[in-house]
Every structure is written in C-alpha cells, then in structure tokens.
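USER: My hope is that you can spare some time for a protein that puzzles me. I am handing you a single protein, as its sequence and its fold in token form. Walk me, if you will, through where the backbone shape changes along the chain. The protein I mean follows directly.
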Amino acid sequence: MQAVLKDSGLKVTTQRCKLLKFLTQVDKQHLTIENIYQGLNAQGETMGLNTVYRIMAHFEQAGLVVRRLFESETAMYELNGKPRHEHLICLTCGKLVEFADPLIDLRLWLAAERHGMSIDHHSLNIYGHCFDCKQKLESKSGR
C-alpha cells in the first residue's frame, strides 16, 4: 500500500494505508463514503467520517479511485485501473452490474473517428429494472 501511495504522489499515512487496503479487499466494487466508513469500522478500524471523505478526495485527485454519479446522485467510488466497463443500474433496488462489451467499444471508437475525435474516456450507464424488481412491479400492477 505504501508503494502505491508514494507512486501516486501521496504522503504515506496509517489511515490512508488502511483505507486503500480496505478498498482493495472489499468484494463490492462501487461504494459510497458511508459504505467505506461503515466497512472500516466493522473491521475495527476507527476512522472518522470526515477523514474518510478527505482521504477519498485525495485518492480521487491522485487517480487511485474514480468517483461516479449514478441516478441516485450519491457519489460512488471504485478503484481506478480496472478494464473499461459499462454499468447496468436497477432503478428500483439500485443493483449495479458491470459488464464489458467489445462491440460497444468498437461502435464508440467508430463514432469518434467518424466525427474527428479520439476518446480519452467515456461513461455508459444503462438504467432499467433487474428481473426481480420487474417481476415484483408487474405482480403489483396485476400483469
């Protein structure tokens, strides 16, 4: 963790190391600040909510994490450096699924080329209802 922080130009502190370690070990890949705060405290790491906000802002500035805003407008964070991917988001339960599709990448590249652009980065979020929520919605409406 220390090397990653140093390579990113950040000062190495115990709290930054603990937070980065947590992010690399947690199963869920899209976390709110509150998720991170609760997860750290559940592991016995005492860190204030304001400290988590401050460290995550430094991590974002250093390029260690990516901050994303989805439909809920609550910022979610994921580690940077993951392969390019898109997001499917359920409007009812908030389920978030990452997926990669080479055809989407090809279409984006072709569109950019056709219009004389190059792509530095992009964001594609697709909103709908997961099958569980869709089934519940349909059963409530009597379909």
